[in-house]
Structure formats: C-alpha cells, structure tokens
Design brief:
- Belongs to the histone deacetylase family. HD Type 1 subfamily.
- 30% of the residues lie in helices and 13% in strands.
- It has helices at residues 28-39, 56-59, 65-73, 83-88, 103-122, 152-160, 178-183, 231-250, 276-287, 303-318, 356-368; strands spanning 6-10, 47-50, 128-131, 167-171, 190-197, 220-225, 254-258, 293-296, 396-400, 406-410, 417-418.
- It is globular and about 55 Å long.
- The structure holds ligand V1D and calcium ion.
Length: 423
C-alpha cells in the first residue's frame, strides 16, 4: 500500500491572535509548529491549503444564532454594552474565554480549516487532513468554555455524517472532550473516546460511567486518568486495547482525532508524563487502520513542545522520518538548550495510575455490550455546506438537507485555496 494523501490547512493570520498577557493559550504556537514543518521540508510531501473563514451560517449548524451573532459583534471596545450577555455566553475578562481583538476572525479561521478538512475527506480528495489550529473541544451550543468559542470538531463531525454512517471521535488532550461528548451524547452515529485527567481538574466531567443516553448508551467512552501517566502504560494498558475494540465493534467510516499537546510531559497546565514519541504513537496507531481521518490540535501550553509534537506528528502521518536535531528556522532559539525534537519523560514524576487494569476491563466490557455497528439508511448525500461572509447575505438557494432541515446552499461552491507562501 502506498502512502496516504495528506492535506494540511493553515492560515497565516491565525497565529497572530492574542488571548492576553497572562493567558496560557498562545496561538503563536501555531506559527512555531508551521515553521518547524517548513524547516523539516514536510510541506513538499503534502498538499498545503489556506483555509476559508467559516461563515456565521456554517457555525450555526451547531451553535445558536444568538451566540454566533454575539461572537461576531463583540470587541474589546464595546464590551461594556454587552455586560448582560457576557455572563450568559461565559465570555470576558472574568472567564477563561476573554474577548480579544479579532476574536471572530480567529474562530472563523480555525473552524473553516476543520470544515475544509472534513469536506476534502468526504470528497475523497485526501486520506488524512490536518488542522493544528482546530480541536477546540470545550465550546458548547450557546457558551464559550475553556479557551474555546466555536466547536470546530462538532461542526466537522456533522459534515462527515453527511457521507459516513458512523464517525469516531478520539481525544488525547489532557482535558475531557466535554463539548463534543455532549453534542453527540444521545446518538449511536458518533462514538466519542476521551482519555483525560479526572478529579479536581477542568472541566470536571468524563467519569467512566458517563456512557451516553437514549440511542447513545454505550457510545460515549471515558478513560479517567491520574497524574504522571507514561507512554508505556497510556498506550499498552489503555489506548491501544480500547481503540482496537472500538474499531472492531463500531467500524467507523471516518475518524476525528484531537491531538491536544497538553498531555505531554512538562506542559504548563497538564500533568501527564507522555513524550513526543508516546503521543505520536497514538496518532500512528489510529492512522494504521487506514480510515479517512481529520487530525486536529487542541490544548498545549508549553509552546516549544507543542510545536515539536505537531511537527513530529505531521511527519508520522506522512510516513516521512525526520531527524532529532531541530533544523534552523525563525524560532530556533525556542528549542534551547538541547535543540532536539524529542522529549524525554520526567524521571522525578510519580505515575499515580494504579488502576488501569480495572479501567480497561470496564471499558472493554462497555464496548462488548454494544449490539454491533449501527447502520443508518443514507439518503442522497447533502451538499457540502460552504459559504463565505459575503454569501451570508442573499447569494444563496434554499435547499432541503439531511433530517429535513432547511439549509442554504451556495450557488457556486468553492474550496480551500492551495497555499504557496512561506508565512
Ligand atoms: F491558568 C490560567 C491563567 C489564565 C487564565 C486561565 C487559566 C486556566 C488554567 N486552567 N484556566 C484553566 C481551566 N479553567 C479552570 C476554571 C476555574 N473554573 C471556574 C474554570 O480551571 C481551563 C482549562 C482549559 C483547557 C483547554 C484545553 O486544553 O482543553 C483546550 N483544548 O482545545 C483548546 C483548548
Ligand atoms: Ca481528552
């Protein structure tokens, strides 16, 4: 079998956004990762695209109109006039989700890139699509949460469900993927798997017995972990056996993989002890099944390590080995003092996970109890829901889409632009 066709989505202005001086989320990490990917010459091995900015109508496929309108209007200058709704939408200086300059542009770009990836997978233009700016798993229908405003993951999964009967979501961020789990909690068409730190840790959800509701019972899978987990135990005691069982019983047509890099050793907010090789082994294992996969970013707060991790995972997805010495690039000094790609585990960190066997056994039993891969009658595939800001006005046709929902379709759909600049 040949190598996978990989598409990479990036926009040069996404990393320029700034949450504020004391905020741990630094979109600048995306620029570091991109420059490492360029310096390793990985761009020559994949199709590179400049993503489209998602429109309000695209975001409203999951989010409430009122919330999307709020995000489109709010600025640091008019904050005071919105004081009533700020609390309602969990945004502003007293929350984890500040209103910063260009916030709406930022959410449009990271969301557009995930939608572009999902559309390319649906159209079989690529086997793997990468958007390191996406993966903002905490955003809710009408609420920002945990540094996330728009849930690009939910929107991308909804796009994939137009073509695929079943979509698997896998979340290796150190935090629970609560927004995605909640969105699909009552359906058997999306299975969610999150591994995360549980107990006195944000967002507080993701108990092992949170398994889904109604038609979705058994289709939410949660692995609650403790601090200090290492590559060997994470992969061999949990990730690989649970993931393999999911593939056997659920047989997804597409996978969305959230690669939050805050599960790495030495993360500013995280508390796991995974190395770049361990984190990437999970990615490699998912890729090994050859199912169309959308690969996304997520958390990650020691930004030099986020760049190391996502550059290395890009090479793993391309099956292009890269050397451990960091090549010279605009951000070379960030990688001092060792200037090496790979992280070593912290030997002084205790692994507080002494019950992985019981967690694994319980999750395998949950999966064994499922009745087998559910099927759906697929009707005609609805068109990719793509608009631009200008198209939000009146340049559209009314169209009847999946589940009888009224949808607007662009008269002239267009795709992400091939990217030919360095920055
Ligand atoms: F340390 C901080 C400094 C400034 C602002 C926020 C934080 C901070 C650290 N950890 N905020 C958190 C978490 N929030 C709380 C709040 C206390 N309660 C009222 C809530 O503990 C939020 C952590 C968000 C993690 C986001 C993510 O890594 O999962 C992510 N994934 O995709 C994008 C981000
Ligand atoms: Ca997780």
């Amino acid at each position: 079998m040949g190598k996978d066709r990989v598409s990479y989505f990036y926009h040069p202005t996404t990393p320029l956004h700034y949450y504020g001086p004391s905020h741990p989320m630094k979109p600048h990490r995306l620029k570091l990762a991109h420059h490492l990917i360029l310096a390793y010459k990985l761009y020559t091995k994949m199709e590179c695209y400049r993503c489209h900015p998602a429109s309000a109508a695209e975001m409203a496929q999951f989010h409430s109109d009122e919330y999307v309108q709020f995000l489109s209007k709010i600025t640091p200058d008019n904050l005071r006039t919105y004081s009533g709704v700020l609390q309602k939408f969990n945004a502003g200086d007293t929350t984890d989700c500040p209103v910063f300059d260009g916030l709406y542009d930022f959410v449009q770009l990271y969301t557009g890139a995930s939608l572009d990836g999902a559309i390319q997978l649906n159209q079989q233009q690529a086997d793997i699509c990468i958007n390191w700016s996406g993966g903002l798993h905490h955003a809710k229908k009408s609420e920002a949460s945990g540094f996330c405003y728009i849930n690009d993951i939910v929107l991308a999964i909804l796009e994939l469900l137009k073509v695929h009967a079943r979509v698997l979501y896998v979340d290796i961020d150190v935090h629970h993927g609560d927004g995605v789990e909640e969105a699909f909690y009552t359906t058997d068409r999306v299975m969610t798997l999150s591994l995360h730190k549980y107990g006195d840790f944000f967002p507080g959800t993701g108990h092992i017995q949170d398994v889904g509701a109604k038609d979705g019972v058994g289709y939410s899978v949660n692995a609650p972990l403790q601090a200090g987990i290492t590559d060997d135990t994470y992969l061999n005691d949990l990730f690989i056996p649970v993931f393999d069982k999911i593939m056997e019983v659920f047989q997804p047509g597409a996978i969305v993989l959230q690669c939050g890099a805050d599960s790495l050793t030495g993360d500013r907010l995280g508390c796991f002890n995974l190395t770049t090789r361990g984190h990437a082994s999970a990615v490699k294992h998912v890729k090994g099944y050859g199912v169309p996969t959308l690969v996304l970013g997520g958390g990650g707060y020691t930004i030099r390590n986020v760049a190391r991790c996502w550059a290395y995972e890009t090479s793993v997805l391309l099956e292009e080995p890269i050397e451990n010495n960091i090549p010279f690039n605009d951000y070379y000094e960030y990688y001092a003092p060792d200037f090496e790609l790979h992280l070593k585990p912290d030997p002084s960190m205790a692994n507080a996970n002494d019950n992985l066997t019981s967690i694994r056994t319980e999750l395998l039993q949950q999966l064994q109890d499922l009745q087998g891969a559910p099927s759906v009658q697929m009707q005609q595939v609805p068109p990719a829901f793509r608009t631009t800001a200008a198209d939000d006005n009146d340049d559209m046709d009314e169209d009847e889409g999946a589940k009888g929902l009224s949808r607007k379709r662009m008269k002239k759909p267009h795709s992400a632009e091939l990217y030919d600049e360095v920055d």
